[in-house]
Each structure stands twice: as structure tokens, then as C-alpha cells.
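Task: encode each sequence below as C-alpha cells.

Item 1
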Amino acid sequence: MASSTPGKKSSGKKQSSRKYSPAAGNVVATEVRAMEQGELLSGRSGKKVTSRKQAIAIGLSEARRAGMKVPARKN
């Protein structure tokens, strides 16, 4: 006699909505493209940004300032 096992159930964790809005992703993509073309400059020193991580941080910062859905900074 084969015992039927119930299907896998969710772990009880609530499905959350997106952490970043699609518009915020577009802002970040724009900043990364600008960095790749050599047009993105650092705010304080005015030097050319060469780090992809820094370009993403600049894009997220601009998205926050524009009021888009982006999680708060980790401090």
C-alpha cells in the first residue's frame, strides 16, 4: 500500500514585494552605463568613477533622492 505524502508547503515565510522598484533599477542601469562610457564623476572629488560598485551606489542614491522604492542604506 503506497502512502501519499502531501506536497511541499511553504515555510510560512510571507511573500514580500519587490525590494527595489523597476524605476530604481533603470536609474542604476543608466549610471552604470555612464560609468562604462567614462562620463560618471564622483560628487565630492569630481574624479571619474571606475568602480562598478560605486556606480551602483550613486544610482541607488539618486533613486532615493527621487523618492523611488529603495531600501535604506546600511550604516
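Item 2
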Amino acid sequence: MANYLHYELDLTPQDTVEVTLDAPANVRLLDDANFLLYSQRKKHRYFGGYAPKRVIEIPTPEAGHWHLVVDLGGFAGTVRAWARVLQEAV
């Protein structure tokens, strides 16, 4: 069983992913290849990082299918997260 929350998103470069947390956590936006590496506990690249505050926004680097992962970095505890996509007004 995975110790992380996982969301799959189809994003455009105009999108920003907004994540609301109930506790500090790591928030990572990964492409398919890096999500596979993450899930295998291998070295991976991501956008985002440790979020000590309640809301974090991550701009989409490029269009495509993305994985949003929220975890506690191996520490005990739980976190709840809500994600939504903010679209830039045109």
C-alpha cells in the first residue's frame, strides 16, 4: 500500500495546480517517467517541494499528463489534501 496521496491531471501551460493541505507535507508534480521512478523509490525530478503552509500553487511547466503526489516524507502521521486546477484567464 502506498504512503502517499496521488492525483492524475491533464494540464496545459496556462494551468496552475493549487493544493490545500491540513498539515505540512511534500507536494510533487511529476511527469509519467518521474512518477514511475518515485513509485519505485528511485531518484526522480519534480516541481513543488515541501509545503509548510496550508496552500501551495505549482505552475504547470508544460502541457501533458501529470501526477500530483502528496506525502509526509516517510514520517508518521496523516495528511489530507485537496487539489484543483486554476486556469489563467485569457
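Check on item 2: The mean pLDDT is 93. The chain has one domain: 5-87.
End of task.
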